Amino acid sequence: MVKYGVVRVTRQLNISRTAIWKHIETLKQDGYAIHTIPRKGYQLLEQSDRFDEPAFASYRKGRFGHIVHAFDQIDTTQRIAHELAQQHVPEGTLVMSEEQTAGRGQLGRNWYNPKHVNIAASVILVGVTHSRRIKANLDGGECVCESVECAGP
Q1: Residues 47-101: pLDDT tens digits?
Q2: Integer Cα distance of 125 and 41 in angstroms
Q3: For the whole model, what pTM was predicted?
C-alpha cells in the first residue's frame, strides 16, 4: 500500500486539492483501488494491472515511450503507428493495446492478441533499415523476457 499526502502532492504538482480530488476520482473510475483518508490524503490499496499511459510513465527511459497511445482494444497497433508516423510524430512513440483483434505478424500472418494475456505494441522508428527493424524486434522481445524473469511470479 502506498500513501500520498495531499499537501505533498499539491506542492510537487503545483495544483489545487480540488484538482487532485478530480484526478483521484478519474483514477477510481478507471479501476484503481484508492482509499481516501480524510484530512490526510489518499492510499493506493493495490497496484493496478492496467497498462495504460499513466502507469507506463514511470518506466520511460531514453528516447522511447515518451509519447504513448494506449488502448483497451484495437484492430492492430501497427495501423495506428503507421498513421501516426505519417503525421511525423517523434521517434519512439509507442502504440499499445491489451487486446488486438486483427494484427499481422511480420510475414503477414494473422495475429490475435486476447485481452489480459499479452500486450500488443508497436514503436515508431525513423530511418531504420528493414534488417535493423528485424533485429530491434528480436532484441525488444528478449528484453521483455528478461524483465519478466527478473520481476518474478
Answers
A1: 666 665 566 665 666 677 778 888 889 999 989 999 999 999 998 898 988 889 9
A2: 41
A3: 0.60
Which residue, among 34, 55, 38, 44, has the nearest Cα to 3 in the 3D structure?
A: 44
Which grid cell sits at 77?
497497433
Size of the chain, expressed as the number of residues it contains: 153
Which residues fall within 8 angstroms of residue 63, CB to CB, at 6 or more apart?
A: 91, 92
CA–CA distance, 26 with 12 (Å, rounded to integer): 19
98 within 8 A of 72, measured Cβ to Cβ: yes
Burial state string for 42-56 with b = 16 or more CB within 10 A and e = fewer than 16:
bebeeebebebeebe
**All 3 cell numbers of residue 91?**
521517434
> H or E segment at 61?
none
Cβ neighbours for 85, distance < 8 A, ≥ 6 positions apart: 124, 126
